[in-house]
């Protein structure tokens, strides 16, 4: 193999070893997918912190009730959505498939399910706002149901992409595991 400082092997210019100098595609994909999932986890943590702040302000009455409304019921179980994020982050250092699978399953249970429930819980209030223009809960002057539906739409996208990239990462890790077993 061609060396950076020493002589090359006899009878070669070093180009016949180029295939050894490339990183396998599943390793490249693993690094890229981990990066994307980390970004999504940080977005999810930002959403989680916003909901936590709204709950704290609402329950501790730090601001008047007309400024920040009390939380909807779906927000309480959604606070458990931090668990899948932690499992996801724990799976990255050693490519731990078990933690990644736990992250994917618990994302459905602790993140997506409360969002679906929240959409159904807030639907009558959204319908009343749309039909009659009446809102009874507010967050800094905006209709609470509008703000929370916007948050639900963003959270569904974040969790959807997180699940998609996690599945692709899982496939990538299985590919590398199968190749190691063949050798």
From TrEMBL:
It is a multi-pass membrane protein. One of its GO terms (biological process) is endoplasmic reticulum organization. InterPro entries: Jagunal. It holds the Pfam family Jagunal. It is found in: Endoplasmic reticulum membrane. Signal peptide: none annotated. GO terms for cellular component: endoplasmic reticulum membrane. Keywords: Endoplasmic reticulum, Membrane, Transmembrane, Transmembrane helix. The chain crosses the membrane at residues 40-62, 99-118, 138-158. The keyword Zinc does not apply. Belongs to the jagunal family. This is Protein jagunal homolog 1. It comes from Gopherus evgoodei.
